């Protein structure tokens, strides 16, 4: 029996944050069938996110394996991706993997911040709130680097966007 | 469950033969988007404008990527690379939009070349065909000068992108709306370092003043902007730094610095316009 294309697409995981499915991340916007073709629409997280090509390949690869030969991946840039689209399940999966989930994204005009951003975070290892920002730019485009002053653990935080 | 990534090659096995130095043709960053020309918009002017915005991002992305492995410490190395990556993404979208609006801007390539339009624009145009401002093509200088350039450029670009929310073209609007979020992080990164260097040592202040004087005159090469000027004034005030006494530098033809940068960026790609893997 052929599984629904939407169900297959929803299982594909993010190449850089593999504890999240593309659906959890909020990147997967729609899965539609047009005759025999499947059109999957995704919204990239960052303009230059190098994982976008891998996401597209993984979606095509998985759907072909389930018998969908004609798969097209479309890009939707509007509305822009926001961390607010990460699901509750996705946030729990991030925390369980030691990555601090994002707070609410800001909206409206972008205020200038000349001092380091202060976020109310807790260490993903020991739950201490005595944490410090190491860098707003981490190993992937979507994360900042933190360190816990209590237990010394370095960890990533998915930054609000 | 993650069998897509058990092998580093598994995910690459979908129509993977493509030009060796860039993106696969099926990796169109505007795939499935409406790229028709809106009523009242001149396609040639739209393409030209997208090249200006795209080239600014491309050239500065390349300059920032020159810091990779050379920044003062690992965190700043990663930060500058991240900013470069965001700008490269903006450049891909804008160059692709230019090519869809007016295909005649794309340089001709040999028959059978798999080079997609965005890469043809990036790698196969000559220096005089680039539309970027002088501000982004200047050499990096030291870390302080790079911080000054990112501050000035990102502040102006952010103010411009906020206004582009009203642009008639849907792709430009979408690129700008996305870019605003990224540029806010770039500007604030530079603003925080600007204040840190200003409050640091005599040597860091000296370098900051020198760097700011180098880039200050170029800041309105895409037009003056009161919103951006107010933000810059706020950063300078927070840092206790006076604006340099440097008059505006008019946009001129490109400097030799761009030619040298492009030579390095393009040489391998140009040697293999049909290269596939």
UniProtKB/TrEMBL annotation, chain B:
It holds the Pfam family PaaA_PaaC. GO terms for cellular component: cytosol. InterPro entries: Aromatic_CoA_ox/epox, Ferritin-like, Ferritin-like_SF, PaaA_PaaC, PaaC. GO terms for biological process: phenylacetate catabolic process. The gene is paaC. This is Phenylacetate-CoA oxygenase subunit PaaC.
